[in-house]
Design brief:
By secondary structure, the protein is an alpha/beta fold. It has 11 helices and 9 strands. It has helices at 17-27, 74-85, 114-127, 140-150, 172-178, 185-205, 212-216, 221-232, 238-245, 276-281, 308-319; strands spanning 2-4, 36-41, 47-53, 59-64, 89-94, 132-138, 160-166, 258-261, 285-288. Strands 1-9-8-7-6-4-5-3-2 form a 9-stranded mixed beta sheet, with helices on both faces. The N and C termini lie close together (11 Å).
Length: 321
């Protein structure tokens, strides 16, 4: 429906895609966001922590964070603040094991675990009284959001008026191996370290749940996923996991006005993560490929209160484009 390429006025000193990714996410500060936490029990004897920031609105935006992220990430706080300031209530839900406390089950989350997202949306529909519901998905949370909207099996999805996703590796067949190459190892090694630390917590509670030694010997996130995520969530193999969770397989089925924003220099994305032709043909799915911005960076001035992405998000939800 829409394909555009806006230009991000990135500071000259952020002259590489990695600087545009790392600096804003590490050094930017967002003050003044105070969440109220709600814990909900799941159908499988686990829990999900929802962090709310309300301003008395009848419009709610639900945010899904990125891989190994949480409601405390600077991008979540930045989005929450600007949306509150523009008349939206916000809820950031934390994936299993991402809220600061280990979840109860031996398994956690993965890129395509949309039953959790459905459960959160359904809970909100049953317990709150909003007139309008919207979604934001960041990086892996964006993949989950797009898959959720395109699966055509969740009744709760019919309540969503519009969605925006950003910095999303929608094509795992190429973006997954791309993550363990070259400079991208900077990010991959940190991710792998984080998920291995979580596995060690599981070992103390569930000593026989998985082959911990083999998982801890995984050299990268690719091997970790193959040895841990795949068997824990009952996928046949790594290929089965990738094909079933990647959002690219579900985009053509989306019937909710949805915008995907992927910067042209996002270091974690491959060319397959920019579905230009699909966007041109779809009546519901739109694509923007900003010139500059990195991965969830979009910095124009570190001293400004809000970055390009946050201002774009407000415009999208206020104007529908």
């Amino acid at each position: 429906m829409l394909y555009t390429s806006p230009i991000i006025q990135t500071p000259k000193w952020l002259y590489t895609k990695h600087l545009q990714t790392i600096v804003p996410n590490l050094y930017r500060k967002v003050e003044g966001v105070q969440y109220v936490r709600e814990r909900i029990e799941t159908w499988d004897d686990d829990f999900l922590d929802l962090d709310w920031s309300k301003v008395g609105s009848k419009k709610l935006i639900l945010i899904s964070h990125g891989f190994e992220g949480s409601s405390d990430r600077v991008y979540a706080r930045g989005l929450t603040k600007i949306l509150n300031n523009n008349g939206f209530d916000v809820c950031v839900w934390n994936f299993r094991g991402c809220s600061g406390e280990d979840n109860r089950q031996y398994f956690g989350y993965h890129s395509g675990k949309t039953d959790d997202l459905d459960y959160v949306v359904s809970h909100i529909l049953n317990t709150q009284s909003y007139d309008a519901h919207y979604l934001i998905g960041v990086s892996m949370g964006g993949n989950m959001t797009l898959k959720y909207l395109g699966e055509e099996k969740w009744h709760s999805a019919k309540s969503i008026i519009a969605a925006l996703t950003v910095s999303v590796p929608i094509h795992y067949e190429t973006s997954f191996p791309h993550l363990i190459k070259g400079w991208n190892k900077i990010y991959e090694r940190r991710f792998t370290k984080q998920v291995k630390e979580k596995v060690l917590k599981k070992q103390a509670r569930f000593p026989n749940a998985m082959n911990y030694q083999r998982i801890m010997e995984a050299k990268n996130l690719w091997e970790f996923t193959d040895r841990c995520t795949v068997p824990l969530h009952h996928f046949k193999n790594l290929e089965d996991y990738i094909l079933k969770v990647q959002a690219s397989a579900y985009l053509k089925h989306i019937k909710t006005p949805t915008l995907l924003i992927n910067a042209d220099n996002d270091p974690l994305l491959t060319k397959e993560c920019y579905p230009i032709q699909l966007a041109k043909k779809s009546n519901f799915f739109s694509l923007e490929i900003p010139i500059g911005g990195g991965h969830v960076g979009f910095c124009e001035n570190l001293k400004e209160e809000h970055n390009w992405l946050e201002k774009r998000v407000v415009h999208f939800f206020q104007n529908g484009a």
